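The methods section describes the discrete structure representation at length, but only in general terms. What matters is that the chain and its backbone geometry are given together, residue for residue. For illustration, here is how one protein appears when written out as sequence plus structure tokens:
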Amino acid sequence: MKVFENETINFSDESKSDEHIKRFANGTIILKKIKFPAIKEGENIFTEIKQQSNGDAYDRTGTVFFIPQDKASSFFDGLEKGVKTLPVYENGNGKQYFGVAATENYSPAVEMMRFFTAFGIQKFNHIQLKGKDWQTISPYRQDITELKPSLSEKELWIGTFIGNYDKGGHKVSLEITIHKSDQIVHKNNVVIPLFNTLNIMEMAGQDYSTMFDKDKGLFVEFTLKKDIKNAQLRYITTGHGGWENGDEFVPKTNSIFLDGKMAFSFIPWRSDCGSYRLYNPASGNFPDGLSSSDLSRSNWCPGTVTNPNFIPLGDLKAGKHTIQIKIPQGASEGTSFSSWNVSGVLLGYQ
């Protein structure tokens, strides 16, 4: 299923919706309604983006997402009517975070894939460096079969966001493919969106996810109508901000608490960023022989997908539950601040 074909994601007053594609937040978000067929057990689903710079030289946060329509309010309402129409989350630091956590009447946008653009691929391939033969396109492809219960026979808004302030921006093509297979890895028939702190509406006033500066972190209450067996949290996390002392470049522990008890704790980190140097022609080079795209980061690299973590939560009884994410977010330094984009979806079997 072709969703987008060589579409521009940029920052411009001239970005307008048409009959095929909706554009929001000055062109940094594109949306299209897609009707999914019945997806049978044993079929695999993949999402694939091809991306090039159309003028923006920098590494940027990107996400492919769909908007659940299972509750009275959805992320689409925020896009159409403004982010402040969405439910607000507060951690006690004085800021308000809109649309990031599920409530009884609202489901956040669900990330199908989080990706990061490389430094200026294709548009800046004229930069010549000894021994470097630049790639011309960044491919991002990921298995999303575990989201099947949310997609099968549904008509959904599928969106792509790349955070940038460049009039040229980026060019993207997106397709979703369904493959017949005998291998059944994901048997879950439940997908419950819980949280998504990635500020998809950044260019329309949605604040950065700095709620981890207090011990409360991110705290979400949810109610299960039925018991769930073999529950898992599909958890995507990346740290951002600051310069050399910011959380982008400083390892930080992510702790996940279920009903007040720690369920999982780990340090999300990528040390393989140098593998993607040939996708990053505009990456700055340092006197020590490294480039900025080589540097290890908090679970992302310029030019890569960030994989979800599948965190086992055991069997969950029907009724009320809480999930809490705690990260020791770094303090601000002048105008520089740290933030964490985390998204979580509950998977399981009923």
